[in-house]
Amino acid sequence: MSAPESSSGATPPALWRLIAGYMPARVIHVAAELGIADLLATEAKTADALAQETNTASVPLRRLLRALASIGLVEELELGRFALTAAGSQLRSNVPGSMRNVALMFGGSWGELLHSVRTGESGTHRVYGVGSFEYLAANPEQAAIFNAAMAENTRRITELLVSTYDFSQFRSIVDVGGGNGALMAAILAANAGVLGTVFDLPNGMAQAQQNLADAGVAARCEIIAGDFFRSVPEAADAYVLKYVIHDWDDAQSIAILSNCRNAMHQASKILLIERVMPKRMVATPIHQRIAMADMNMLAMPGGQERTEQEYRNLFAVAGLLLERTTPLPGSEISVIEAKRG
User: Fold this and answer.
1) Burial of 97 (0-12, 13-18, 19+ CB in 10 A)
2) Boundary-marking domain end, from 114, 133, 152
């Protein structure tokens, strides 16, 4: 569940910026509801201190504050403290030029984001009583929309990924959660000596065979149905997981990574294709995209975008060792590479 990339990976298309315009609006709305600007009016504070004053959970509140920092309404200082900026001061109550009530009036979508910030529970679970993927499994029409959106997303970043990362070093690759096979088709088309496997739940792979055939690589690729919470195909040289781990909490992520680790041979690699959360958030377009994606993970599936160290920690628990992180040029997306520990 990720924002689309342009074909160059540099900036999203103009239409996407319009579609996703509600994201910073909803972040601002929640900040206004919580009175963050008033609480920061006279001094910088940590997320822990603000969480106590707003009756929210500290970790998701810090994620909200990072999102606010990415759009220039607060500034993240040293030691995890946040200060109000001049622009952010317009969210204060009862001051000349205040726009707090405007933010409260116009704050729309992500309707349960405030609940998510208070509790850490995903908005989807709050509304439907189940997680995002359970909801999609029970609602085929919505699942079709989701799968089509993910396919569009994959098309936008595939060229950049295949041109940046050397997949030819592997003889066999499994795309874990590979959906419609678009990523694997591109990898195989660009690397004639590689064999592939697309692995996903059955309802996510309806178009995989056709996409592989259209790319002329069907003879070099298997399609295997399964559940990555149970197991994944064994003994491949590389296991690619694109926008998989960020959908899940730490325990679920470790379960997926552990199953991959159990399937690997001694020289296998895991390649996570994910956003990497910066150590410190600043107001840049790329940081804003990462922060808003993180808010989307909080509001919908209940996952999160993670720092490199947080990925390193997940790998360690799963018996893996982070080797390197390769950013894709002009993009917030990276290839995070790990081996057996």
Assistant:
1) exposed
2) 133
Q: Which alpha helices (DSSP H) does the chain contain, by range?
A: 14-19, 22-34, 36-39, 47-54, 58-70, 100-106, 113-119, 123-128, 132-138, 140-164, 182-190, 208-214, 250-263, 285-299, 308-317
Per DSSP, the three-state class of 277 is coil
283 has a pLDDT exceeding 60: yes
For the whole model, what pTM was predicted? 0.79
Condensed to tens digits (0 to 9), the pLDDT of residues 63-86 reads: 999 999 999 999 999 878 999 999
Same domain, 37 and 77: yes
The per-residue pLDDT for range 301-311, each reduced to its tens digit, is: 889 999 999 99
Q: Report the half-sphere exposure of 64 (CA within 13 A, side-chain side).
A: 34
Residues marked active site are found at 246
- Can you give the CATH number for the domain in which 188 is found? 3.40.50.150
